[in-house]
Structure formats: structure tokens, C-alpha cells
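S.,

As promised, the S-adenosylmethionine run. Input:
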Amino acid sequence: MIPANLERAVYGMYATHALSVADRHGVFGHLTRHSGDSAGKTAAALAVDEDTLERLLLVLSSFGVLDSDGEGYSLAAGVRPYVDRDDPRCLMGFVDHLTGGTAEQFGRLSSYLDAGKAETDRETPAPFDAIYRDEESVGRFLNAMWGLSHHVSHELAALADLSGSRQLIDVGGASGPFSVAALSAFPQLRSTVFDLPQVAPHLAARATEHKLGDRLDFAAGDFFRDPLPAGDCFAFGYILSDWDDETCASLLRKAYEACLPGGRVLVMERLFDDDRGGPLATAVMNLSMHFETQGRHRTAAEYLDLLRAAGFEDGTVRRSSGDKHLVVGVRAESGSER
Ligand SMILES: C[S@@+](CC[C@H](N)C(=O)[O-])C[C@H]1O[C@@H](n2cnc3c(N)ncnc32)[C@H](O)[C@@H]1O
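Predicted complex:
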């Protein structure tokens, strides 16, 4: 008999695609409003093919995403927020990114094994040239980042306690998942998202949606070429995991130079366990980082080393209840103009 863990690993691809297709056809919204509906009733309400829908519902039930009593289907306990497009915890934007972007890149892994990443990627565009290849793909990526980052950012902003900060610089802050959460919790704070120009309209839309006025602004730039704006708190959310150690060191050094004495840097990332035995999502995304970017995931100790090497002191690690955690470094009040 196939061990259960192996079976789930083998058939996992079906679960991701079934989630994606069900989401796109409104299945989760329907079952939220009409829990217990049969495949026939659901198919009629959504005007989709009943046979195909029932097969999808059976797959999702087998994976434990849905419960079934043999007749009707309902969302399994705890699932709703993560499949509900109106909930800030929704993961379906991220699932779009997996099926619409990540999936087609898996083939490169085999070439990496045979010829190495550098050789395989010789002709490949730089990570964000590929991810931002057209408007649709910019929007899809930024939606995925919002879905992954915004909800946990409320917790991360509270863990960081920004009550003593005045000017946040959200480096690669995307459409503002962290800035929006930080500004809503700390009324004295202002934030500048520093990011590539393609991001500007997406940040402006979020600033309007959250009624942040001029407390949230945008600085277009390339963090490899341009200096960072000055501030007393620098956020790096899911940035360092895109790059190798040397690049991370130079980005953190730039932040150190732009940071007011006594200011802080907030590194917000997935963390590997100390022995790198998990968590599962970190191990999976560490593989994804390999072909989607030039980065990797790290342990807390590795981030503390990077912060120290850039000049930041008093490194501390604060874990959230989600996948993204906080590592803080402080720029000393005086000294260390290196
Ligand atoms: C993985 S996303 C992280 C988004 C957000 N900070 C979060 O925590 O969800 C990486 C961000 O870095 C930005 N970025 C990538 N290369 C950049 C560059 N050279 N200069 C400025 N921003 C860049 C991207 O546009 C994107 O918003």
C-alpha cells in the first residue's frame, strides 16, 4: 500500500489545480452561502457542467478541503477564510500565481540539476523582468503578495511596535500589504513604499481604498542602483528571500546608510527551523525561490548574521502565528559610520 504521505505528495498537483478551477467558477462562494448543496444544485446555480463539477468536488473532499455526507458538500472546518475572495486571509490569489506562473517553470529544475542554475538561466530574463512582463502579470503577482502578506502584517506591525517610529521606508513594499497594516495601527506613522515604477498604480489604489491620504506615498526606484529614502524604520518583507547573501548584504547596508541613528530594520520572512527540517511551506517556497528568483529561505540565525554584517545591532526574532516572522535589527544611536 502506498504510504499516505507519499500518496498526498503524488496527487498534490490535482489539489492545487482543483482549488484554482473551483475558485474561478465560484464554487467556494456558492458553498459558503449554500452549505450542504449537492453537485447538481451547485452546478445548476453556477451554470457549469455537473459531471465535471462533481469530479472536482470529490477531489477536494478527498483532500479534506470539503466535507461531504455522500449527497451534499460543505467547506471543511477552518477553510472558509482562505478560499473566500472577500477575506483578507484568502490564498486564492496565491493559487493563481502557482498555477499561472510557477507551474510552467518546474521544468527548469531538471536542467538545474544537470547543468546548474547559472548555465540554465544564462538567457533567462532577471526575476522581476519576467514576473512584470505585462500588466496582467504585474497585477496577478501583486494580488498574490497582498494575499500572502496583508493579514499577517497586522500581527507583524504589532510585534514590531511602531509607536516610536515616524517614517517607515517599505523597501520593495509592493501594493502596500505591510504599510497599510502599519499605518492603520500607528496613527503618527507615515510610510514611503520604494519599489519599481510598475507598482505605482497598484499602491495608489490601495492607499485610496484604505483612505490613507498622503500618509502613504510611493518612491519609484531600483534598489540596486538608487539610494533608499531616509527614514527611522526600514521594512524588508519577502525581499531578502529573493536574493543571494551577497546581494542581501548590500541591500541591508543601503538601509543602514539611509537609517537615522537609533532607527530599526524589520526583516519579515518565512523562517526555516534551525535544523532546516521544515516547515513544509518554507521548504516548498525555498524550491520556488530557486527558479522564480535568485534567493532562498533562511533560518533566524542566518538573518541575524546578515543584519550584524550590515552594522545593525541587538538582533531579535519575534514569531507570528502565521508563516511570516519578524527579525529586527537596530542602528546604534552613534558610531559605526562604515
Ligand atoms: C516578493 S515581493 C515582496 C512584496 C512585499 N514587500 C511583501 O512583503 O509582500 C518583492 C518586491 O520587491 C520589488 N522589487 C524587486 N526588484 C526590485 C528593485 N530592483 N528595486 C525595487 N524594488 C524591487 C518587487 O516589485 C516586489 O514588490
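The pocket of S-adenosylmethionine is lined by residues 128, 145, 149, 172-174, 177-178, 195-196, 199, 222-224, 237-239, 242 (CB under 6 Å). The radius of gyration is 22 Å.

- D.
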